[in-house]
Amino acid sequence: MTSKRELFIWKKHHDLLLLKEVLLEEPFKHNNGSKEKGALWSKIADALTQHGMKVTQRSVREKFDKLYSDFKEREREEKQASGIDIEYDDNHKALTEIHERVLELEEERQDKETQEKATAAEMRKKATERLSVTKRRSKDDATVSDEPEEEVSPKRRRSQTSMVDMMKESVTMKQKYQEEQGQIRSRELDLRAAELQQQQQFQSMLIQQQQQFQQQQQAMTMAMFNTLNELLKNMKN
C-alpha cells in the first residue's frame, strides 16, 4: 500500500519565516526560469526544512507568489479606500520591504537597458560616421587619380637637377674629408711607432752602459781584493 504524502499546512508564522528567507536570498533579482533563481528557491526550501517545515522548492515558490499577489491586490484596494486606518503586521511589513526591493531592482534594470540602448545607438552613429568618412576619402582619392599629371616646368626641372648635384658634391666632399683624416691618422701612427722604436733603442743603450759599469766595478773590486791579499802575504813573510 502506497503511503500518501503528508500535506503541509501553512500558518502565519510559517509565512513570516518564508518572507524572511526571501528577503535574505532575493530570488526575484534573477530572471524567471534561470538556474540561479531555481538554486535560490532550493536554498530557501532547505532553510525552511530546518525549522521542521515539510516544503519543497515548488511549494515555497508557489506560496510566495500567492502571498505577493495578495499583497499587491490589497495595496491597490487600500489606495482606493482612503481615510481608513489599517494596522500592519510583521508579514505585511516584510512584504512591503520585498515589494520596495523588487521596484528598486526593476528601476535599476530599466536604467541599465536604457544605458545599453544609448551606448548601442552611439556606437552605431560613430560607425556610420566612420563609414561616411571612408567613402568620402575613397571618392577623393579616385578624383585625384583621374586628374592629369602636372607637367614639370623647365625651371622646376633645373631646380631638381641642382639639388641632385649638390647632394653628389656633398657626398664627394665627405668622402675626401674621410680620406684625408685617414691619411693624417696613418702618419700619426707612423710617428708614434718611430718614437717607440727610439725609446726602446735608448733604453737598450742605457742597459748596456749599466752592465758595462757594473762589470768595471766588479773588475776594480777584484783587483783591489787581489792587491790586499798580496800585501798581507808580504807582511807575513
Please describe what this structure looks like:
81% of the residues lie in helices and 0% in strands. With 237 residues, it is mainly α. The radius of gyration is 57 Å and the shape is elongated. It holds the Pfam family Myb_DNA-bind_4. This is Myb/SANT-like DNA-binding domain-containing protein. InterPro entries: Myb_DNA-bind_4.
Helix/sheet category: mainly alpha
| Alpha-carbon Rg, integer | 57 Å
Helix count? 5
Mean of residue pLDDT? 83
Major sheet: none
How many E-type strands?
A: 0
Helical content, roughly?
over 70%
Coarse morphology: elongated
- Topology as a string of helices (H) and strands (E): HHHHH
The amount of beta strand, in percent, is: under 5%
* Cα end-to-end separation: 161 Å
State the low-pLDDT regions, or none: none
Biased composition (Basic and acidic residues): 105-116
InterPro entries: Myb_DNA-bind_4
Protein name: Myb/SANT-like DNA-binding domain-containing protein
Region (Disordered): 105-163
Q: Outline of this structure?
A:
The chain is mainly α. The chain has helices at 12-25, 35-49, 57-80, 90-146, 154-236.
Summarize the SSE layout with pairings.
Elements: H1 12-25, H2 35-49, H3 57-80, H4 90-146, H5 154-236
Helix pairs in contact: 1-2, 1-3, 1-4, 2-3
